[in-house]
Amino acid sequence: MRDLNGPTLPRRSRRTAALLTTGAAVTATLLGVSSVPANAAPTAAAAGRSARTAAAPDISVANVKAHLAQLQSIANANGGNRAHGRSGYKASIDYVKGKLDAAGFTTTVQQFTSNGATGYNLIADWPGGDAGHVVFAGSHLDSVSRGAGINDNGSGSAGILEVALTVAKQGYKPDKHLRFAWWGAEELGLVGSQNYVRQLPAAERQKIDAYLNFDMIGSPNPGYFVYDDDPQLEGVFKDYFAGKNIPTEIETEGDGRSDHAPFKNAGVRVGGLFSGADYTKSASQAAKWGGTAGQPFDRCYHSSCDTTANINDTALDNNSDAIAHAVWTLSGGSTTPPGGGKVFESTSALDIPDAGAAVESPVTVGGVTGNAPSALKVGVDIRHSYRGDLVVDLVGPSGKTYRLKDASSNDSAADVVATYTVNASGEHADGTWKLRVQDVAAQDTGRINGWKLTF
């Protein structure tokens, strides 16, 4: 989150409920969507929609923390931070992009220049959904130069990454189009998100039904703050937390402090969550949320101690689940398994030569009509003493390759046991598919235990 000690937009004025509702109605009219107070009874159409909409799945906080551990490792290997213009930021972008590409997202890296250095935004679109109605979730990925930035804002970045990956794992088919973004140079003044919004044609801005921002969601002395910029979006989050018996407060630390501001200024409806930064938790807040009164929500805000030790697991879990709830609720859709869930599997073990040629394990698919799905599941069981040496590809019947995993010197763990999601909709389903694995460095060995395709 951007520090308010620098130039900012004016602090949010406190509006009456009537003014908030009126403002939402004006914005909704401009965007061609209806505006209804958050506490209004659902319309018949909305009730029918909710009856068939899949409930949001639980988001694995262990997986979110695993992403944070990777961001910490990246910072450790790159001068202790992931700041704009530094190698740690580019490595962070590469990590997130690799995960999304393997899951079947269409990713775009947008470059910009700030303070004489190249910055990067990463945009990820999930195939399908009505492109005229976009549900958009974002967070900034950069840290300040003084530390790894694990709460600010590894937490929001990891949360929406795992929500996006869960979309793929679930084979989710949203009615609306889903888009996710990781912004650069937020800490320098919302540079990345401003650059994106400035370059977005007005017609494309009007297709965004909602932009949701997540900047700091795992503060160690946490609060549960909800943006009040749009009553309907505010209601989605407040309803979720009310169902968990978690009280919320309106986020009042000031507009213009994070990446929702450029969207709001462009007329897009915005919402989001925040667990607190350098402000002090009051006695009444500690009474309802726990934690320590008289101490900051995040004592390591913009400091070198903002590491993986600076995270409250419960807040991270609750807020990650709330992100998923909002994405599923606002986009509608179903999770019917693509292709009816047919599984084709190889259980034949195949050795992977050390620093040698690629090996291929085949699976023959038959009896599946038409093309492969846009969310083809590829389950991989590879045993290897140093998985960072491995490059893993899926090869379709046409010979086209789909990269599942790149080699990485930052990935020193053992084994690759994972399920990837691939957009293989350009391939005929029937035919011979291959898992191609190559060990590109010396000293470590392994084998393919088996793998499977789920259609």
Please report the distance between the alpha carbons of the first and last residues. Answer: 41 Å
Q: Count of DSSP E strands?
A: 17
Largest sheet properties: 8 strands, mixed
Architecture of the largest domain in CATH? 3-Layer(aba) Sandwich
Give the spatial strand order of the biggest sheet.
1-2-4-3-5-8-6-7
Q: Identify the CATH class of the largest domain.
A: Alpha Beta
Task: Please work out how many helical segments DSSP would assign.
Answer: 11
- Gross morphology is globular
The rounded Rg comes to: 22 Å
Description of the structure:
This protein has 455 residues and is α+β, with helices and mostly antiparallel strands. It has eleven helices and 17 strands. It folds into two domains: 297 residues, 3-Layer(aba) Sandwich (Aminopeptidase), CATH 3.40.630.10; 117 residues, Galactose-binding domain-like (Jelly Rolls). It has an eight-stranded mixed sheet with strand order 1-2-4-3-5-8-6-7, with helices on both faces. Strands 9, 10, 12, 15 and 17 form a five-stranded antiparallel sheet that branches. Helix 5 links the parallel strand 3 and strand 4. Helix 3 packs across helix 5. It is globular and about 60 Å long.
Summarize the structure.
With 455 residues, the chain is of the alpha+beta class. Helices cover 30% and strands 25% of the residues. It has two domains: 297 residues, Aminopeptidase (3-Layer(aba) Sandwich), CATH 3.40.630.10; 117 residues, Galactose-binding domain-like (Jelly Rolls).
